[in-house]
Amino acid sequence: MRAANKNRRGNSRKQWILLSLTAAVILIGVWVASSNFYPFLKGYFLYKTEQVKADDLPKEEKTPPQEEEKEEPAKSEPLYTEMPAVGENMGELIIPKLDAVLPIIHGTDEDELEKGVGHFAGSVMPGENDNTVLSGHRDTVFRRLGEVGKGDLLTVKTSAGEFTYKVKRVRIVDKDDRTVIVPKPKATLTVTTCYPFNYIGDAPRRYILVADLVEEELNS
After folding, report:
1. Mind listing the pLDDT tens digit for each residue in 96-129?
2. Do you know which Gene3D superfamilies this protein is assigned to (predicted)?
3. 119 belongs to the catalytic site
């Protein structure tokens, strides 16, 4: 008899624990449904009826903005539509320090150098990016070039406009040195003549002015 009563009390206790757990699960479910499901259902309904703005939607539901197409920079017009002919007068070299205005002839052979300052045909035209190379005789157009040094200005006038360069470096190199005509990353003017200036005969060296473009005034 005692064993039967003990078993009944044990079963009742198990049933009470099971009912308590069941009630707890139901209460948790009701709370979750009341706190989350209703807002979700309301938001879904408003979204379907187009009453929700894009900013009110959860972040993961926003449509990613489309990237704007970048416009390519407009290509600048070339300064020169055609190159001058060899032997043609293509402009002037102005050296304020010497109060000198010298004609520039396209080409650097003896015929061109007899007429003025020669423009090395393998280099770019004045004002263009890269290295513009001008040469002249030390006993004619560049007799006083040794007076020009770092910080002085050199101005070139052509059909494209007026280009002012500032001397940044003076070099004295061997006459066979070819570095004076190497390409440059920006608009550069290289002016060269024989050196020493008072040397009798074929001078063994070269006097070099290297200048950067600092100002330009293009012709309209």
Report:
1. 999 999 999 999 999 999 999 999 999 999 999 9
2. Sortase (2.40.260.10)
3. no
